[in-house]
Amino acid sequence: MVALNAVKAQNAALNTTLAPGLVAVFVGGTSGIALSTALALARHTVSPKIYLIGRSQPAADDAISTIKSINPSATPTFLKSDISLLKNVDTVCAEISAAENKLNLLFMTPGYLTWKGRDETAEGLDRKFVLHYYARMRFISKLLPLLTAAAQDPDPAGNRLSRVVSVLDPIVAVRLGGTGKLDYHDLSLKNTFTLGRCGAHASLMGDFFLEGLAQKHPQSSFVHAYPSGVNTGVLRDYPIAAAVMSVLARPFMVPIEESGERHLFAATSGRYPSQSEGKFEGDIAAGSDGTKGNGSYWVSWDGESFPANKKLDRIRSGGAVEKVASHTEEVFRAVCEEGKTYP
Ligand SMILES: NC(=O)c1ccc[n+]([C@@H]2O[C@H](COP(=O)([O-])OP(=O)(O)OC[C@H]3O[C@@H](n4cnc5c(N)ncnc54)[C@H](OP(=O)(O)O)[C@@H]3O)[C@@H](O)[C@H]2O)c1
Prior knowledge:
Helices cover 44% and strands 11% of the residues. By secondary structure, it is an alpha/beta fold. The strands form 2 sheets. It has a 7-stranded parallel sheet, with helices on both faces. A two-stranded parallel sheet has the order 7-8.
């Protein structure tokens, strides 16, 4: 476990270890873990540019005034969008790309809890699955040029941090005896949707898509993080469940401010380097395939990489990286380039 005081000490030094003007995008930044991380970033850095993406204008107004009160040098911007449609993700990314020439951090948490079954969007995909997987991967695909530009910043005093953090759960498919299987005949779960399969597919597809990106884009690093239980807005539509959980799960809960500090650490620490940073010695986390410093990290709430798992290794050796990437590119081509519903 990375001790909380080590996390806090490293974060507190960011105002000197990072140059002013870091650019960060928080998808899902109006609430919960992403907002708490954005506030921690505002607390510890000089003149950060912070983009918050979500649907709620009142929540964004509150977030922006809190950021400005914590750090008057910060520049927060709200981009209001329902990103359960991939065409809206493209619009938001175009706005960011028009305004910025580099991006240091893409931090993503969008999602919601539901007991309902498949809820298909006009693009033919399940809404929750889009928020947990397709929209996140589309953000990365569209913003990779800016992330690469940050890694290659020619300014000797510039920030070369270039990192993606997706907060979900890298191992939910194999927890509690889960089979950890991907159904390659129906990756989007058009015909075989259950909430359980949706959770497993979103997690595993995120795992292996990010692992593939780290191989193809060695100048950026990619973290898939599990937050543990955090008392956020995620249960806002289920007040009774929220009350029960807050009692039963209290021993396992991470306080929201600690969660923000820990996720800021995941977003900025040299413990999770890109491949091209070439750090394989010292306090470097084990990568998703067990190799230190491979640029792709499956990280638990406490900053440690999850240990190797035979079921996940089997999925990898069955070609998951290539198959998931090829499916995801096919969805993006159909929905975003050709304007079709999928499939
Ligand atoms: N909290 C936990 O204990 C926990 C545990 C394990 C995993 N997770 C996962 O971690 C992630 C973050 O959770 P959290 O607790 O921080 O959740 P949260 O407080 O509910 O925040 C979710 C964010 O997603 C945004 N969002 C939802 N639907 C959207 C849409 N259609 N378009 C744009 N933005 C949308 C919300 O913004 P608007 O309302 O403004 O749209 C909000 O900012 C989730 O994926 C969750 O499943 C959480």
